[in-house]
Amino acid sequence: MTERIEGHGGELALAALRAHGVREMFTLSGGHVFPLYDAAYKTDFPIYDVRHEQSAVFAAEAVAKLQRRPGLAVLTAGPGVTNGISGMTSAFFNASPVLVLGGRAPAFRWGSGSLQEMDHLPLVSPVTKHAETVFSTDDIPRAVGAALNAALTPHRGPAFLDFPLETVFSVAEAELPTVTGVDPIAPDPEEVGRAALLIAGAQRPVIIAGSDVYAGDAVAALREAAEALQVPVFANGMGRGSLPPEHPLAFAKARRAALSGADVVVVVGTPLDFRLSFGDFGDAKVVHIVDAPSQRATHVQPAAAPAGDLRLILSALAGHSGDRADHADWIADLRVAEDAAKARDAAEMAAETDPIRPARIYGELRRALAPDAITIGDGGDFVSYAGRYLEPAQPGTWLDPGPYGCLGTGMGYAMGARVSHPDRQICVLMGDGAAGFSLMDVESLVRQKLPVVIVVGNNGIWGLEKHPMRAMYGYDVAADLQPELRYDTVVSALGGAGETVAKAADLGPALQRAFDSGVPYLVNVLTDPTDAYPRSSNLA
After folding, report:
1. For 65-77, how does the pLDDT look when each residue is reduced to its tens digit (9 = 90+)?
2. In terms of Cα–Cα distance, which of 467, 290, 466, 441 is closest to 376?
3. EC (predicted)?
4. Has this prediction a pTM greater than 0.85?
């Protein structure tokens, strides 16, 4: 039986949001969306506000990614919405179920030049799964439910609604739709069987597990399939940690040897994009397992491409009853390569050089981070090192910008992570270039008592641009930042704390102080600007 409710547009929207499991709002104050604030205030619904709308969307995305439920951002009309488009686009590329509610100039005056009058839909439609203007107050619960169902249906992604001023401020009676959930997509059994035969019969198979393995709650099924078929597993994105580092089938360092020697590469829950050589693994056959038919690659022809609920597909692979090749020698060869790479990395992470090499920072972080710490990457060159040297111990503990590569996620992701996990370490790894996008939102963290640790790799350059440009042209332009800039004093001025570290031996104590501080704390590490990440080996 459906429930009927009465209230203004904000109250109707919030009732529908609560029914779908939304538990907080991220926003930057704007008059067009006051009724949403009023509804939240009257019912003790948490509101977290930021200094730039992109941070609100990124915070909502962090909640969506970490908790596998809808995240909510509320943006005022016009520039409020356009400032959030990079966040929506990142959520689109990352398949994050974020709902953005926007204000909108009044419909009855449309075309007269009201404040911030703009039709948002043509801008947001290409980067959302559902975009709609709601013109009737009593239609708001229906629209919220439809938008959230679209966001949660694989392949997941953001949705957008905007409300003209008179729609959200008016009072109406409406039905609160029943929440039915999203039905799993059943895969084609023949395609799954084809994939199982290829993997089981391969001499040198490899699995690469991506973010959708975590988003689709398929971590246990992945482990079941890998163990049943005895296939080594590598991971990228939020797939990292799906198998703990000590698991005999978990690999991270031997990726080049694995992909160059494999005869079957199984890519699960991530696109065949630039991070994975666009699906070109030489003579190896490719099995591409995706959560929806829309995610099948069109630029390559996989040998098999099961599409549907990843848990169903991976469990079916685990249950394959046919013959299976022995992969013991292949796994042993990769373990030799893995151990050799780990030894090289250990030496780099212990480097005593001054200026500090980025690898040394990660050596110290590996000692400082708890197994359940949430690690957030916001940067280019500096965060590339994180992908190489950090090995998440648990799934759902790694956040990075994803394939869209948008800088500025750091403080929004930190806010969403702290709200999601009040008792865990939250550590943001930030390049000094990325710091320019969102560092002002430290003030939001301070004001709302949301402590995080921020580690800035400060080499005074745009590392991913300066070194390649010099190699190509013999010079570089627009690639320098202020050397040794005191980002820590910026954070201190905003109410947090921090320090600058110039010597490798001082890194460990500085990180300990940061994690013990209980406030937003920035460790500003002066790193060697000549240390360039080797791009050819970065397949993560």
Report:
1. 999 999 999 999 9
2. 441
3. 2.2.1.6
4. yes
